[in-house]
Hints:
By secondary structure, this protein is an alpha+beta fold. Helix content is 22%, strand content 38%. The protein is built from three helices and 13 strands. A hairpin with a 2-residue loop joins strand 7 and strand 8. 27% of the residues are buried. Mean pLDDT is 82; it is low at 1-22 and 51-59. Residues 27-66 are annotated as: Disordered.
Amino acid sequence: MKISIVHSVLFSAILCISAQASESSWSAKSTDSQGDNTLSSSTKSSSTVKSNLPEGPQVSAKATRQSQVARKVDVRPAARDVSQDYWVYDAYVTLHTDSDYDGFYHHFSLDFDIDSIYAHSEVYARLYLGVDETFREYHTTSDFYIEGDSTHDQITVETELLSGFYPDDYEFLIEVYDAYSNELVAVYDGYNDADLYLVSIESQDKEVIYVEPDVVVIEANGGSMGWLALLLLPILLVRLVNTSFIK
């Protein structure tokens, strides 16, 4: 009996640890593009990262950033603490796929346009989703060029959240970094743009799809002979009983 209790306690502890690990981990698959040019695709998570950036010394620094484990931010960066030479002109979210039709989407796109006082700059962005001032990074873009205040250098990041995001109304946070110095130069979130606030999102593993079970109907068809046999059965039973009494 004692052994059974010990086993039960150990099993409960293992389940608890497993649940906590699941709660604290997340992953997402994203592709970023600028115009018709696809910059990169990667799967980022709180534990490992996969990227399909081309190999070579020129992209080693970019690959390193995209290969970093996803960050978690408990205090959002303040806009006053960053450079005034860069800013996000506009950003908006497009919702694509809600597999279980509950109003929460796991597949979406984030479009944003970064401007600068400089005619030509190279930057990259870290993208986060947050609830109650806790933000989790779901993608790091590759480096891309911006041309002053041009509207033709907009970035589109298409994402599928794979795991770790429960159904909720999330806020988007965009951090923009100088590609050469890695200095944080601009911040944009729901405080700046209502389009980034209270967006109904969940990860793909939280999409609960109900499948109705197949109903099998069996039809028995004995024909007229079957019904005739049922009608004659009582008569046969009576004759058998009478025959036994006579004997």
